[in-house]
């Protein structure tokens, strides 16, 4: 069995639960899983020590990890990462890093893995219109989509080794511009509620925000909404030329379900559609479809959620 | 004067239906087009040339069918068009190796590419190629200023990061705020007469093998309800059946 190495996924500087999913994926691929944690302060790596199914944790400590720089991160991580199959998350940053690490080791990268069976990796191609199964000879780097592999539990206990490392930084951070709204970005959220042209006016997105606040969700949009209304920024767009998301729950409101929109969200675990047109294509992909105007449905949804969450 | 390269790939039109024949995708009756994000890469490359002076060379790796995409970008104002001749599957290491060779030989200062190709969805080529060349890179760029080397914005946790990167560098391009230009009749006529420079390549052996390509497993039919009040039922199902809330 090949050795596997998980590069821990971080969120706000802490190891995120996605890391536990990566460990599960790694243990389906090979054995002897090592988790490497990029950090400036090695105590950040401590929680990884309790993930079940991990043989060893390496806290890769370096100043370069204070900001993301693809070149420096790949150099610094490569220096401390044993040989084997490397597993990362499929977040935008981690896919970038995965590609760099693979090229650094002259191996191939397989991005967005959604299943592993007997060493065969499945990935969506043509924006999820088909699935490609590949086998890899020798080592590789793979990135794994969120919300697919069940997270390893936290009943383990293993050694944490701290290794100092460094890399050559090629980009200089000028500024971090915080998002104007405190709301989550669609790429970071586990629940997304998106509005389309059927919302009528951009001001009506406030009804989506109200529900998003109850659920801790992000608000997304179709391209028609982004293109029609200046108030709806492209960063909210889900789809072929927007973001690819696969949350636990995706609620599409006033969105017809064009093929390019589906391209960005069809792999969501649960899909709810609210549309006044019973023939809208989105209903073919919805787990729960509500044929109604949003004016009728959203207030009911909002108050039901309040009751259920109370 | 900046020597600019832009990578463009031919992919199925995003409206097209993907079908399987045997255990492979059958693209024989599918309309092909430039990959959507590559249009932003081309626009950034042309704007870079307009602001700093220089030349723009578009490069594709593909079969003869991909010439159409090259002519399309030639019509927009790209100076040179090169096709690395290869019709078949290449893994990421193979593709990046042949591109790295071409980019080094061409003496380029900067490479623009799409954030992800519409067929692979991978987003591997820009950062991987940069690593092979030992260059800096920024992925998913939404806004580029051609100053201080390059000043690039990209989405980062909680907002946007704005970074500067010295040349040589590779930038993979997201949509951002730029509008892509359209070709005019003069450009199209000129592109018709243009020669694609076709070069043979010999990629390293692939380590990734395609086992099969299949349709995504059909989703079990969902439940459909009529009327706004059914939102109450759906909320219940989200808790009791889906265990989400
Ligand atoms: C190259 C390319 C890339 C693209 N990329 C993307 C992309 O990234 N993302 C994307 O989304 N699209 C993308 N598109 C566009 C896509 O083809 C569709 O045009 C777009 O998704 C339609 O958005 P929509 O569903 O909001 O609008 P419409 O198709 O106009 O649908 C509006 C829907 O709202 C419903 N409705 C109207 N009023 C109400 C009401 N009061 N209550 C409830 N429902 C109501 C209608 O029945 C209708 O189904 C792309 C297209 C191309 C060619
Ligand atoms: N065969 C190819 N020929 C030219 N450019 C390519 C090719 N494959 C990928 N690219 C470029 O790399 C980007 C990302 O592709 P990918 O890594 O496959 O998602 C694309 O948008 C193109 O700009």
- Using the coordinates shown, work out and report the CATH topology of the largest domain in chain A: Rossmann fold
- Structural category of chain B: alpha/beta
The bound ligands are: flavin-adenine dinucleotide, adenosine monophosphate
The largest sheet of chain A, given as strand count, sense and whether it forms a barrel, is: 7 strands, parallel
Name the pair of protein chains with the most residues at their interface, and give those residue counts.
A-B, 98 and 88 residues
Cα(first) to Cα(last) distance of chain A is 49 Å
Mean pLDDT over the residues of chain B: 96
Q: Which class of chain B in CATH terms?
A: Alpha Beta
Shape of chain A: globular
- Radius of gyration of chain B equals 21 Å
Residue runs with pLDDT of under 50 for 5 or more positions of chain B: none
Main pleated-sheet profile of chain B: 7 strands, parallel
Strand numbers in spatial order across the main sheet of chain B = 9-13-8-1-6-7-14
Low-confidence stretches of chain A: none
Short descriptors:
heterodimer, A: 310 residues, alpha/beta, Rossmann fold, 2 domains, seven-stranded parallel sheet, 7 helices, B: 245 residues, three-stranded antiparallel sheet, 6 helices, 16 strands, 28% helix, globular, binds flavin-adenine dinucleotide, binds adenosine monophosphate
